[in-house]
Amino acid sequence: MQYPLGDRAAGGPTSRRLFVYTGGFLRQRRVRRILHLSGFDVRLGRPTPDDLIGVWGKSPTAHRGEAIAQKYNVPLLRVEDAFLRSLAPGRAGELPLGLLLDTSGVHFDPATPSDLEKLLASHPLDDTALLDAARSGMARMADAGLSKYSGFDASLPPPEPGYVLVVDQARGDASVTVTQAGRAEFLEMLVFAQEEHPGVPVIIKSHPETAAGYRAGYFGPEDENDRIRVVTDNIAPAALFGGAVGVYTYSSQMGFDAIFAGHKPRVFGQPFYAGWGLTQDENPVPRRTRKLTRAQLFAAAMILYPRWYDPYNDRLCDLDRVISTLHAKTRAWHADRAGWIASETRLWKRKTFQNYFGQFKPVIFENDPEKARQLAQTTSRNRMVWAGKAFEAHANATRVEDGFLRSQGLGAALVPPLSLITDDIGIYYDPSRPSGLEQLIMQRAKLRPDQKQRARTLISRIVAGGLSKYNPHDALPDLPQGHRILVPGQVEDDASILAGTGAISTNESLLHATRNANPDAVIIYKTHPDVAAGLRAGQTDATPFADLVLTQGDPAKLIACVDEVWTMTSLLGFETLLRGKKVVTVGAPFYAGWGLTEDRGRIPPRRNLAVSLETLVHATLIDYPRYFDPVTKQPCPVEVVIERLVSGTLPRHGPFNRTLSKLQGVFASQSHLWR
């Protein structure tokens, strides 16, 4: 749902020529690409009345295009960044995730109604699906802590609650100067904030560009006193709104954000969000008389008006994809910006670690635990360790492990992972202690409708795409008829077996227990793929118990052909739950104990909550892992990994990987060769 240019094709014969006279349009490939996908052919030259002239908002260079438009009677297209842009301001060089394309005006200039104002004034904004999408978007942005610039330091505490929040802006910004405002108007706003809240402390929040040193603001240290404090720290807006008793702004987008944080901000300019009954307006726009709900304002400004861009697939997209994209980027920013010291990381994994965790500061590798601890202290970095290699000396280090949608090929064959897990509490496969995944499952016990739908869509795509952890595409032989039970073999010295099993801790004992409980069933034993490939130890003679032994076979296809699965701790049990089949556990895998499996092992008493499959999936596949797109080399949401696995658009790994993996198996005991 977009307005008013959404019916144009992306390029092709219906494209409209867009003439530009500013170098920025030519230098910024992302901007040109979004314009092209929106149906515009960007070019230089002399326009005709059937063309458009593109200018950047009310920027200092806009007058060039405006003059030519007037001379040749050509309409203007004003371009601006969308309201959910990036981690950092544009001056930091980060590319935008969306644009605002306006044929009527510009959203921050009240002199002429913009396309956005027309939407707010005249669009019905009463479609149930649209408003549901708006409520979902509002909740998701709040959940992820997103704003126009979302690179906030989540560890920074806000001031003590009970203050008035006054929002500064970048000096000379067009959204201020377009109404001939300046420092005097900002000082007036500050006076109002003090007079209307006698004795209450005043916090002035600097603009991100001011804090980063790009542009001065309208306030500075000279405005501070025993009651007024200027905050340049990169505190999240949501945290500031939480402690504020009032919000004052001229025309900042933080005023827009404040509305969705539950405030009715005091507005002294005439921004697009003022005049609809959701703000206290010092200078109201007379023509804005309609009363809107928060969901209606959000629907127009965030769903109908912008052109959102999907960088993973190079196409226009909806707001949901942009929220997922920016959330993945901000999650990486929050976790990685301080830098990491990584221990017990084999040589072949180090490039992967740099891709995942080194985008803001390169990862430093140090295997000696004491040296790693000292290095972390001196460099103010965090520590991480491969979970299966962690021991007492790695206390307080974040554990790292492969994710659950890992790759198209085996980890033991050195195929890089598409997902990794970081856990600063424990690790999901060790039931002897709590883990981050357990906490997430409990936190997601009650899902919002949009979260439940996202999880259901994820399940459908995984099942329809036949996806599993390693995603082989092996064919299946003919299977015996009868009540089929699949028993997945595991690597018996794997950390999940050592930590998550009791009396039944070998493939043979699992087969024996399964046969004893099901004497008439058709038992199919599937050798673990790492064992079958000769990359890990663990061969088992299953013939005394199994009717069929498979060394190959696509697990997704196999699950579809059986009635139930018996397992110790295999991830295949979780994959079976996604497909609606019965799962019996004899260990304590992460998915046991939540009312979704028949559990015969010893489950930790703390898992005493029955949850839905959607809750388990949301926590396990959306919240817990981090995903990396090998095509764009960027953090990404889980949906992108699923698209890559289904479409097969993944880098190929040649015979070198397999040769190296064989050598790894031979020399595994000589660990110094791999560090």
What does this molecule look like?
- The protein folds into 3 domains: 1-144 and 291-316, no CATH class; 151-271, Glycogen Phosphorylase B (Rossmann fold, 3-Layer(aba) Sandwich), CATH 3.40.50; 442-647, Rossmann fold.
- 34% of the residues lie in helices and 16% in strands.
- The protein contains 24 helices and 26 strands.
- The chain has a 7-stranded mixed sheet with strand order 2-1-3-4-5-12-13, with helices on both faces.
- Helix 13 links the parallel strand 14 and strand 15.
- Helix 16 (449-465) crosses helix 22 (613-623) and helix 16 (449-465) runs parallel beside helix 23 (638-647).
- The radius of gyration is 29 Å and the shape is elongated.
Topology:
Elements: E1 16-20, H1 23-27, H2 29-37, E2 40-43, E3 52-56, H3 62-72, E4 76-81, E5 98-102, H4 115-122, H5 128-144, E6 163-167, H6 174-177, H7 183-195, E7 202-205, H8 208-211, E8 228-231, H9 237-243, E9 244-249, H10 253-260, E10 266-267, E11 280-281, H11 294-304, E12 306-310, E13 315-317, H12 319-336, E14 340-343, H13 350-357, E15 364-365, H14 369-379, E16 382-386, E17 398-402, E18 419-423, H15 436-443, H16 449-465, E19 484-488, H17 495-500, H18 507-517, E20 522-526, H19 529-532, E21 548-550, H20 555-560, E22 564-567, H21 571-578, E23 582-585, E24 598-599, H22 613-623, E25 625-629, E26 634-636, H23 638-647, H24 655-666
Parallel strand pairs: 1-2, 1-3, 3-4, 6-7, 6-9, 7-8, 9-10, 10-11, 14-15, 14-16, 16-17, 19-20, 19-22, 20-21, 22-23, 23-24
Antiparallel strand pairs: 4-5, 5-12, 12-13, 17-18, 18-25, 25-26
